[in-house]
Write a structure and sequence with these properties.
By secondary structure, the chain is an alpha/beta fold. Helix content is 45%, strand content 15%. Bound molecules: zinc ion (ZN).
Length: 336
């Protein structure tokens, strides 16, 4: 099975009222862990890479790792998605590599940053302009596009907004109709990174139906949705780490958001925590071992455990065989 466009996977999730995890990947162990979890739970999934991941892997290595994942799992629908594309140039690079979906993050201006590395928000008009530009490039090639309206707090790779702003439902209809995005990332109180909240957050769940009714053809995306499991933070700290008390988005809040219409759930931090915890524990407990397959294998297994459970909790488990996957060639017809 070739890589599948995001639009199909999310439209199907919409029909089935479940969420699909979009998991950030940078290396082979992460990809293998996710594919094992997806194969065992029969789940469609989204593998996504940020600009940082593309740089780390010199792009071509990541491309072939994802192609290997698809070759190894020919009966699972897999999307290859660019996370937080900062500009059209990076969007073009990802599409040239074979990505079937891209995010253009027009909510902040990556070309400008303050002394802390945070990027200023773009105006609504500018966001529409850069997002439409990406859609105009990607859609004739059959590639799906995700845009973002509103800005999240926290830090993830180079994504850090100088100020945060919940999505304004009154802007949604114009944004979606003028840009043509297939998926819309919304800001409803989630946050990037491990240090999201001091106490359990309450998401602005009431915004979801208000946004959805203004963009019925568009599927909704939630970024910054790692749960930051406390046992992983404790494990890292028990084996030499010094993470501060951290809190994420509790699974029951994510499930409530899925119930209301969120279809793509971005998870990066929890994979980092699991991998780091597994490796730290192994190295401390086995100080004489220097075979990297042993400790990377332990990290891989930790990611597998955490992500397999998410596939079940998000509701995507069991849906891999629900539909005949489309290709980018098929998808071109959707945008004519
Ligand atoms: Zn994000």
């Amino acid at each position: 099975m070739p890589l599948v466009p995001l639009k199909q996977v999310l439209d199907e999730a919409n029909k089935g009222s479940y969420g699909v995890g979009a998991y950030n990947v940078n290396n082979m162990e992460q990809i293998q862990a996710l594919m094992q979890g997806a194969a065992e739970t029969r789940t469609p999934l989204i593998l996504q890479a940020s600009r940082g991941a593309l740089e780390y892997t010199k792009m071509v290595y990541l491309k072939h790792l994802i192609l290997a994942a698809v070759e190894d799992n020919p009966d699972l629908p897999v999307v290859c998605h660019l996370d937080h594309g900062p500009n059209l140039e990076v969007v073009k690079q990802a599409i040239a590599l074979g990505f079937t979906s891209v995010m253009i993050d027009g909510s902040i201006d990556y070309a400008q940053e303050d002394e802390k590395g945070a990027h200023p928000p773009r105006s609504f008009k500018e966001n529409i302009r850069v997002t439409k530009e990406a859609c105009d490039y990607a859609h004739p090639l059959g590639v799906s596009v995700e845009g973002e309206l509103g800005t999240l707090g926290g830090i993830e790779d180079e994504t850090q907004a100088a100020s945060t702003q919940l999505t304004n439902p009154d802007q949604v209809e114009q944004f979606v109709s003028e840009t043509g995005v297939d998926a819309l990332a919304v800001a409803i109180g989630t946050s990037h990174g491990a240090h999201k909240f001091k106490e359990a957050p309450k998401l602005a769940l009431d915004l979801i139906p208000k946004i959805q009714e203004r963009a019925p053809e568009t599927t909704l995306v939630m970024h910054g949705s790692s749960s930051v499991p406390q046992e992983l933070v404790k494990q890292i700290n028990a084996y030499g780490g010094t993470l501060e008390k951290a809190m994420g988005v509790p699974m029951d809040q994510i499930q409530a958001a899925i119930k209301l219409g969120i279809r793509k759930i971005n998870v990066d931090t929890d994979g980092r925590l699991a991998f780091t915890g597994g490796i730290r524990q192994y190295l401390v407990q086995n100080p004489k071992v220097f075979d990297q397959r042993k400790y990377l294998g332990q990290g891989r297994d930790a990611i597998y455990q955490v992500m397999k459970q998410k596939m079940i909790d998000f509701g995507s488990a069991g849906h891999a065989g629900d539909y005949e996957p489309k290709t980018l060639e098929d998808a071109k017809a959707w945008y004519k």
